[in-house]
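User: Predict structure, ligand adenosine-5'-triphosphate.
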Amino acid sequence: MSADPVPATDDRPHDDEIVRMREVSVRRGGNRLVTGIDWTVELDERWVVIGPNGAGKTTLLRLAAAELHPTSGLVDLLGERMGRVNVFELRERIGLASAALGTRVPGDELVLDVVRSAGYGVLGTWRETYDAVDDGRAEAMLEVLGALPLAGRAFGTLSSGERQRTLLARALMTDPELLLLDEPASGLDLGGREDLVAGLTALAADPDGPTMVMVTHHVEEIPPGFTHGMLLREGGIVAQGLLDDVMTSENLSAAFGQPLELLSRRGRFTAYRR
Ligand SMILES: Nc1ncnc2c1ncn2[C@@H]1O[C@H](COP(=O)(O)OP(=O)(O)OP(=O)(O)O)[C@@H](O)[C@H]1O
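Assistant: Predicted complex:
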């Protein structure tokens, strides 16, 4: 008689699980930033995380970026368990674009240097030497985002939208396996937002593009082609799953704590108070 098969355990991620969180909580002082998070992002999925101010979105993204350790629970990123892996090596495989990163860029740094220094994991050019491959890739990423004409400008002289596009090009520079975007459209005017949504739509449709997670407050910023969604409120998950299942007036109202009507048209969303 053959032995019973080893029971399947839920302990290790399988190869296609890019982000895996189990019972994850983060506490600071008496505050619970996020609580009891169970979340799996699989290869090639494109997630949007939505919630009001203070819901825990940035905390979740920083956990996924290996920038923050959970107070309790398990976090596996790209098959590596947080706490048992060199986070510096892990971060090389993850692209993160956030306005917070932008505040750390020296104002006199040239846009091309902001992008190409990503390959060296540094902010601010110091003594690295770049080769033609670095230059070519940095220029190609700026081109994708319509920002190539900015290449020779100082970062400190850019508008918010131009900064966001530069930081997105930087996040893509290393060809990351996981791309994390923290409110990439914040501060953009309508045209800038639509340019960015178009760029992210193209990236989402690219079969060679990275697995993506985007944090936003606004349903208008969800690019068509994004596959999954999570709604957060007060550090907990209100709903998560396939975008079309999650994006309902009921779920949005629960997340934002007010009666909202959600409308969708041609893959885009908008919402207003009932
Ligand atoms: N170091 C900290 N100590 C105490 N509380 C914190 C700390 N960092 C964040 N918080 C609190 O945790 C909660 C979640 O913060 P987080 O930045 O993740 O929210 P968010 O959803 O990204 O918010 P926003 O949309 O305003 O950017 C907030 O109430 C915030 O004030």
